[in-house]
Amino acid sequence: MQVNLPLPQVSATDFGDDEAEMARYKEEGTARALALGNRGPARFGPDGQLDPEILDAYWKQGFYVFTNVVGEEERQDIERDIAEILDRAPVSPDSKVDKHGRPAMAHDCEGRAFRLTRPLADPLGGTATNESRHQVKMLEPDAPDGAPEWFMQVMLGPLQHSEACLRLHAHPLLMRITESINGPDFTPFNEGVWVKAPHLGASVAWHQDGWTHWDSPDLDAGTHGFNSMMQLYGCDAANGLWVVPGSHNMGKVDISTLMDETGSDRLPAGVPLICGPGDLAITNRQAVHGSFANTSDNIRVSLNSGFHRRKSVLDVTSGGIHNPVALYDDAYIRRRARLIMYAIDARRQRFPDETAYVYQPLADHADDYHWDEAAKADIHDYNLMDIGI
């Protein structure tokens, strides 16, 4: 699939004195990733649940790559919307206008939307941001000639700005995978569009996502849920997410000590997600994961949707990172989950011959959720009710 996005044209760059070691690390990591046995098409048993071999591989490694989930027609829909998102992004973190001087997308939203970063930077590593979970700073290559001062790293709450992203949210395979892992009463977490532009994409320091349940007596490998990542163009060791296999079973990990032992940000056990266009990767939120600055020629665009078990979030008070602190009671969860219902109906309208997923928690009220102009107004600022734990 040819990339048709409005991207800055910049010169090439690399990791300088660390380039040779980075190249070796990426090559060896790719070989480790492809040998794990946790990739392939989604397969389901007679009970409608994921094949036990797939579930076993996911629970062993903490991530899985499902191949060829999203077809070319849908990817083209998504690409058109991503092009508009990039074109209408604000020019700086505090700006309300885009590069054309127009009101930027999401300028009227209260919830978090665009996160812009300096080219090839690590804005989170070693800071107190996000519960201090990004413990150590990643290597920051020099920005290339022609680089903009700021570039989009992620857009949050995209379902209100892109119908293609909304439709993807209810892809039947994604929904069935989620049900198999989190149960039929699963709840949403949050959504985002991540962009790793060539020679510009910033890093995300190694971290674990969860923060509320580490000391819970009921903690297990799935307590903090998982993130799904559909890859629009694919990803590799240079621009993709890296994961430490099995680390979702280790409890709260002292990442700082791990990095001190290696003397660099190249964790020896880490492996990259290797995906083709339309592949869907899922990663346990308790797994140690992160990504390096993208000095390659290839872009990564990941469409993320996160999901929780209902029992992990019901009547929990949390927030502060993805949403204001709130009590996640039944009414809160049901209202946030309406995005799944709108997505199912939007998908039905776009792909009428597809068998729609039935979301059990709200199935008895399906007739209340029609994707139309009123629904578009209803989901404005929906991500103020994200469910972060």
What does this structure look like?
The protein has helices spanning 19-34, 52-61, 72-87, 129-132, 163-169, 172-182, 255-262, 310-313, 330-350, 373-378; strands spanning 39-40, 63-66, 114-117, 151-156, 187-196, 204-207, 226-231, 242-243, 271-272, 280-284, 289-291, 300-308, 316-318, 326-328. By secondary structure, it is of the alpha+beta class. The chain has a single domain (19-310), classed as q2cbj1_9rhob like domain (Jelly Rolls), CATH 2.60.120.620. Strands 1-2-10-7-12-5-4-3 form an eight-stranded mixed sheet. The protein has a four-stranded antiparallel sheet with strand order 6-11-8-9. α3 (72-87) packs across α5 (163-169) and α5 (163-169) crosses α9. The mean pLDDT is 97.
Task: Give a concise summary.
The protein has 389 residues and is of the alpha+beta class. It has ten helices and 14 strands. It has one domain: Sandwich (Jelly Rolls), CATH 2.60.120.620.
